[in-house]
Structure formats: C-alpha cells, structure tokens
Amino acid sequence: MDRMSALKDKLKADLSVSMKARDELRTRTIRMALAAISTEEVSGKEARELSDDEILKVLTKEAKKRREAATAFADAGRAEQAQAERDEESVLEAYLPAQLSDDELGRLVDEAIAESGAEGPKAMGQVMKVLNPKVAGRAEGGRVAQAVRTRLAAG
Question: Domain for residue 147, yes or no?
C-alpha cells in the first residue's frame, strides 16, 4: 500500500513546480485533483491507494464537472466564470489520455459489434461490455453509448 501511482507522483511533482512558478491556475487545479483523489482513496470501507486507472477515472470525472460547470456559467451569461472552468478543464486534460476522434470511436464500436455478434438496439449491453475496456478514459460514456445506439439502430 505504500507504493504510490506514477500519475499521483507526477501530479505532486507538477504541483511543486506550479507553486514555485506562482501559476495560480495550475496550482489550484492540481490541488483540487489531488483532493478528489484523496477523497476517493478514503471512501469505502477502508483507505487504499488508487491505481493509475482509478486516478484517471477521478480526473475524467473532475474534467467533466468543469465542462458542465462552464456550460452552466456560459448559459447564465457569466463568461468569466465559464472561462475559469474551461481553463481548469484544460489543465486536467493534460493528464488524461487523448480523446478518441469520432472516426476512431466509430471503428471501435464496429469492432465491438462484430466481436459480440450483437444485433439490434436490445444488444447494447453486450456491445458496451466489449467496448468499455477499449475506450476507457478516451471517450465520455454518453458519447460512447450514443455511438453504439446509432450503429445498432442502423445495423
């Protein structure tokens, strides 16, 4: 349990660098990310160290929160707060795997449909079970589900 993940080590090192550089945005965002990771580590029955994959899930969730908040602020006419949320999201994105393009996602969906032998919209669960490990962290769940739904309806 004393072995820290490489991603968490990187976040802590980057926090030191951003503090020394007096980069308020990066410092604030990385602190928030580390707090979210710590919260996740102590949730549940017993405290534990998160793996890199689990940390990526936490960071993905935090980036999604920023995206949703930015949209809400923009819709409310609060452009300054919306921009602050987008700035934090872009700091978090640097730690996440590159997002899949629509073409790449479509190809993976087609492969998963072929691999699972799924037909029709009712087979969505089968396809998602095959597809999720392949896209983990590289595409938002809603986007993946929509792509599968579209392909199965067309198929």
Answer: yes
Whether residue 92 contacts residue 62, with contact meaning beta carbons closer than 8 Å, is answered with yes
| Structural domain boundaries, residue 35 | 6-93
Task: Fill in the DSSP letter of residue 50.
Answer: P
Write the CA distances from 153 to 78, 104, 146, 149, integer angstroms: 39, 19, 11, 6
Closest listed residue to residue 94, CA positions, set 17, 153, 10: 10
Computed over every residue of the chain, the mean pLDDT equals: 88
Residue the block writes with tokens 């999604």? 64
CATH number at residue 51: 1.10.1510.10
* Closest listed residue to residue 147, CA positions, set 115, 112, 96: 112
pTM of the model: 0.74
Rounded Cα gap, residues 135 and 129, in angstroms: 11
Structure tokens at 138: 């590289």
